[in-house]
Design brief:
single chain; about 220 residues; six-stranded parallel β-sheet; 6 strands; about 45% helix; about 10% strand; binds 1,6-di-O-phosphono-beta-D-glucopyranose; binds magnesium ion; EC 5.4.2.6
């Protein structure tokens, strides 16, 4: 029986992925690297330092910087990102999400945030939806990033539920892999070839309907 929903944040509740991409684009440019088109999906769901490593690896420059220099680059990126998300308002909640949250509330489903972003609490406050959630996994306490299942297992524990009682939402292939490794039902939002591992796929959040998702979950 469905008892809880576990949500990724960036790319699911709001399109903060575009701010991540823009900030990394500027950092990459400052060190003479052009982000490849696959960075769009590749950066989704990865922690801040994993994102930088992904960019450097993609350019064949994984050994170019010391750890301290990498920390400085990641800090620079985060400063730009934090500035960008200050402009977010409830109008930035993605289509279909307000109805989904309302329907979940009516059904008294537990709702937890499973975002790799240390800025997730700030974004939830900007969007004015922080009170809708029963908990937020603190990514600073995690040992491994997505696609490792740790974050979804922790979210499920925060909800006090079992893997077969939750549906988890993701826009990133690494995130869908994390959900499946946690043994949960995955809803993928985006390109069906990229998110092929998901149990239920919609092209955009506008197509999310709790009754249909629940029917697929129970099938
Ligand atoms: P921060 P999600 C992820 O959030 C983003 O998709 C990813 O691009 C970002 O690097 C990561 O959060 C860390 O974010 O730098 O704010 O801690 O998709 O897991 O909600
Ligand atoms: Mg995401």
């Amino acid at each position: 029986m469905l008892k809880g929903l576990l949500f990724d944040l960036d790319g699911v509740l709001t399109d903060s992925a575009k701010f991540h991409l823009a900030a990394w684009g500027k950092v990459a440019e400052s060190i003479g690297i052009t982000l490849p088109p696959e960075a769009n999906d590749g950066l989704r769901g990865r922690s801040r330092m994993d994102s930088l490593d992904f960019i450097l690896r993609g350019a064949g420059q994984e050994d170019r910087f010391t750890e301290a220099e990498k920390e400085a680059l990641a800090t620079k990126k985060n400063a730009m990102y934090v500035e960008a998300i200050k402009s977010m308002t409830p109008a930035d909640i993605l289509p279909g999400i307000p109805q989904l949250l309302a329907d979940a509330k009516t059904k008294q489903l537990k709702m937890i945030i499973a975002s790799a972003s240390k800025n997730a609490p700030t974004i939830l406050r900007q969007l004015k939806i922080a009170a809708d959630f029963d908990g937020v996994v603190d990514p600073a306490t995690l040992h491994r990033g997505k696609p490792d299942p740790e974050i979804y297992v922790r979210a499920q524990e925060l909800a006090g539920l079992q893997a077969d009682e939750v549906v988890s939402f993701e826009d990133a292939s690494a995130g869908v892999a994390a959900i499946k490794a946690a043994g949960q039902f995955a809803v993928g939002i985006g390109d069906k070839t990229v998110l092929a591992q998901a149990d239920y796929i919609v092209p955009t959040t506008a197509a999310l309907q709790l009754s249909q998702i629940e029917a697929a979950f129970n099938a």
